[in-house]
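User: I'm preparing a small set of examples for a lab meeting where we compare how different chains pack in three dimensions. I only have the primary sequence for this one, and I'd like the structure in token form so I can line it up with the others. Please keep the answer compact; I'll paste it straight into my notes.
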Amino acid sequence: MTTTTTFRLYLLFSFFVLFAQWSPVLSDLLISKLDRKVDLTSQVVRITATLKLENPGNDQISEVLLPFPDHQAKDLAFLVATTSEGKGKTKTSSSSLPIKVVNPEGLPPSLTWYSVTLPKELGKGQSLTLEVRAAFTHALRPFPEKITQADIQLLVFQESAYYLSPYAVNVQSLSVKLPEPKVESYTKLENTKFSGSEIKYGPYENLPPFSYSPIAVHFVSNKPFAVAQELVREIEISHWGNVQITEHYNLVNAGATSIGEFSRLEYQARPHLRGASSFRHLVAKLPPRAHSIYYRDEIGNISTSNIWGDSSKTLLEIEPRYPMFGGWRTSFTIGYGLPLKDYLFRAEGKRFLNISFGCPMDEVVIDNLVVKVILPEGSKDISVSVPFSVKESRETKFSHLDMIGRPVFALEKTNAVPEHNQYFQVYYRFSNLSLLREPMMLISGFFFLFVACIVYMHADLTISKSSPSYLAKLQWDEVQTALQQIQSIMNHCLGIHDKLEASLRDLSRTGDVQACKAARKSADNMLKELSKDLKPLLSFLQSSPLAASLYSKVEELVAKEKELQEKLIVKHTTVTDSYEKKSGGRDIENRIAPIQQKITALRQEVDDLLEIIDEI
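Assistant: Understood. Below is the structure token output for the 616-residue chain.
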């Protein structure tokens, strides 16, 4: 089946004729001339209808009804009506007129009705030019719905060549503006003309109420379909001079879903051919004095961003970590600060924040937009003024040094488009004394901390010196001191033993017996002095009840060290005597071998006992 045939079948099942026989007369209102312009150059479909209204009857007319089919009304994101006078450069428009949803009786149930209240009643023979602007999201359908990296993106737009109205229309025309002069197919009716990138239908004359003639345009569009499924904007006010904006995006390319393999090599070589329907960057238009700008995602900071600006704006160009093809998603956060004095004002005893509502990125559709205004702690009597309908709720946020929390005013809007990026106001009362709360808390905290330190340094927090636990602690400290001294004496003795061994090694190398005997004499004198120092310590441990379980180990240590001394002296005497008698080296080794074995074993035992005492 060819693409053209598939498309015709698609149209056959998509279109249906509404209101064929429905033509009740609501009033004498007549649309003498109607011009409609449909802009398809972006993913947001914008329709501008200029209606010249006339009242040929006798009754005064104060409102105009605007019907939309239900399938179209669910995609309606923005609707505004104004009156205009003059033409061209002299054309002037009034402020937007009140619009509300109504349910008129006796009219088709499959329509959603809006009522526009006129600035003044339209009398007999009077005329008025009404301009209605509407923006629709998700009104363009990719067809085919899935494409490869090399394919171009084709979209389908459905509308009626005749303006759907409960009023008769004398003359009307329709023009459809395309993003580029490439069309796969379009519905051809009487008086249809395709020129450049524009399709014109009409003029059509003397059409009765509820005239409807479905048309479809199947065209090429590689414009980015950036849709934020959710955008949470946090606007935090600090009366110390800053307004902090934080925006959390959950973004998807809602165009034709990309299928097949992705080749980055082909994309980088020919991005306009191998990825024409993708987008690689977005531009956020920030206020001119924005500062401390950052752009990051869940992984961390993203360096592929650029900032430039002038006195009227600051442009932030952000580039995701990968090109966004159809169906691909990404999440990121951007944040920046603004000077408080540019957005916070006073009026009638209140402060009010005046700041923009929507997304700073052009042509990004937002399925669900949540704007949270975080006011300083202590704010009260809060109210909000938004130029369109939103869902309101209140929360409380706790931050550093907060006691009762900061009031948060949350505004939620579905189907948000760039037209919603209008200024809104949040009014509240706030006492200047509340500014001193956090500094006073810090000062008080540091003051009490310093006072506590002074009290701690000067207070005697020790246990009573006459209590049994205190006395027991002192006795145990004395036992530990005695053990440390004994351990030091034992280590000193072992050091002297090592010197005796070194003197024997020097004797075997030099043969100087007298030097060896002098080393022996010096060692004997030092060991005697250490033995004297050891006796009072042993007596103290023997008499102390806390050292009863330890004394046996200490006593064993002293005995083993004494035995080690004796064996070393025997070894030393044997070697020196053998050298004086000029005995052979092998004979000397045979004589001291059993002694050396005993010395090695005793040294190991002494080291083990020292480790046990060291753990104690």
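A couple of notes for your slides: The first strand starts at residue 30 and ends at 39. The domain at 226-433 is CATH 2.60.40.1730 (Immunoglobulin-like).

User: Perfect, thanks.
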